Amino acid sequence: MAVTQLGGKDPNPLLRRFLITLLLGTALGAPPLRADWKVPIASRKLSNGLVVVVSEDHSAPTFGLCISYGIGFRLEPEGHTGFAHLFEHMMFEGTPDAPKGIFDQVIEGGGGFNNGDTRYDFTEYIESAPISALEPVLWLEADRLKTLDFSLANLDNQRKVVEEEVRVNVLNQPYGSFYWLDLPQKAFNRYPNAHNFYGDFKDLDAATIQDVQSFYEHYYAPNNAVLAIAGDVKPEEVFAAVEKYFGALPQRDVPPRPDVSEPPQTAERRFTEPDSLAHVPALAVGYRMPSRTSHDAVVGAVVGGLLHNGEASILYQALVKDKKVALSVDGGANWPLGNPFEYNGPTLMTSFVVYPPSVTESQLLDAYDGVIARLKAAGPTVAEMERIKTKMKSDWYAELEIPISRASALSHAALFDGTADSVNQTPAEIDAVTPAEVKDFAAKYLVNANRTIIDRVPQANVEKGGRQ
To answer: Residue 55: beta bridge partners?
Structure first.
């Protein structure tokens, strides 16, 4: 199943990743990376607070750029649901000096592409192009950080686009994205983690130009951003160019980060929802994850991979292949709105299981719980551990090999931690996870009192008297 993205231009990041790999990796015949390879990193902070990260890579005459802002849908103010996502769209509506359409014309006309997307803890804007386009792209990004074309026409246009996204991805879609939209709202207690981050229509419709401009002035600030560039560049030349285009932009008053902590969950939460568009039922199970900065979070990422990563995963083999109580299994830690390492507050390990109408929720959960019980009692086998650790490290290096993906990873790491060095530490942290730690993690976190379950049932079944 494709992962849906909260983004302004591209709803299918898996397809985007494939195309990027094809264009910038395979087509260039890039050699495989050594197991001890490290991303080269150089960093600098401008006087206005903008953090700049550069990764030099001369394997192709291209670059990838990512500028991440410390505003995601977890961090948007109460009463303004969906503003982080709405504003991502507004950033493509043009400026007084580069009217709508110029941004795309300059980048795409030079053989590049651009996009943006919103996540829990950041909004990012990405571009990739031949190296000759770097300075024009820097000018464009600095221009829309200086100011935007704040007009009612632009707001109305993008408000309609966002509301249409909601209709397409939620209201008119089987399952309505409940496994990543409804589940957190039921699993968490506090507004930052438990509101409709796609946006309630009443909040979107009530938004004024003043609201939008205030949001921009508070969150779109150089001192709330990290600009990362990876590719055929020299760090000192990039630092000089960034200073040239961004250096005069003033700092802004960024609101303090809200308290995103959650009170401990003490009992299992269970819900049943009708679905008028689904023909077969589906179950979403979400376990609360530990803090991203803890070693347990790395163990949780490995556990999420063991349980969900592909047809060789433990859950797929048990539920689909062996017991035949499920039709498909997807999921993971911080899934599907990011990788297991890119969150900065409460998140879930989610299982999304589509199952046959002939199987009851109880039968499916019994089989599911049997897999979890086995992990608690015996832990993973050596073969299972080697498979998933090799797969996770391979995926991580594959992302870092692509300039735009590397820039994105570096930008997020620096935004969260003040340093991008964690991208080089992740493979070793994955490699260090032991079967005993997996077993302990399952016993501590994969417990009923730490999970929320939604059973999404076809409307026809509800009308016939419900399910057991």
So the answer is: 230
- Report which DSSP code applies to 94: B
Which fold, 269-463? Cytochrome Bc1 Complex; Chain A, domain 1 (3.30.830)
- The residue type found at 72 is G
CA gap 271, 160 in Å, rounded: 31
Going by C-alpha positions, the residue among 316, 305, 292, 330 that lies closest to residue 393 is 305
Rounded Cα distance, 7 and 126, in Å: 11
Domain ranges of the chain: 13-29+37-246, 269-463
Task: Locate 273 and state its tokens.
Answer: 């929802």
Any idea which residue has 């983690």 for tokens? 193
Displacement of CA 457 from its chain's centroid (Å): 27
- The CATH number that domain 13-29+37-246 falls under is 3.30.830.10
pLDDT (tens digit, 9 = 90+) per residue, 172-226? 999 999 999 999 999 999 999 999 999 999 999 999 999 999 999 999 999 999 9
Alpha-carbon gap, residue 18 to 336, rounded angstroms: 17
- Enter the DSSP assignment of 317: I
DSSP assignment of 193-258: HHS-TT--HHHHHH--HHHHHHHHHHHS-GGGEEEEEEES--HHHHHHHHHHHHTTSPP--PPPPP
Which ranges constitute the DSSP H helices of 83-124?
83-90, 102-109
Q: CA-to-CA distance for 174 and 277, rounded, in angstroms? A: 5
Alpha-carbon span 367 to 352, nearest angstrom: 14
The pLDDT of residue 6 is 56
Would the CATH topology of 13-29+37-246 be identical to that of 269-463? yes
Question: Residue 398 — φ and ψ, nearest 5°?
Answer: -60, -40
Nearest to 144, CA basis, from 113, 84, 100: 100
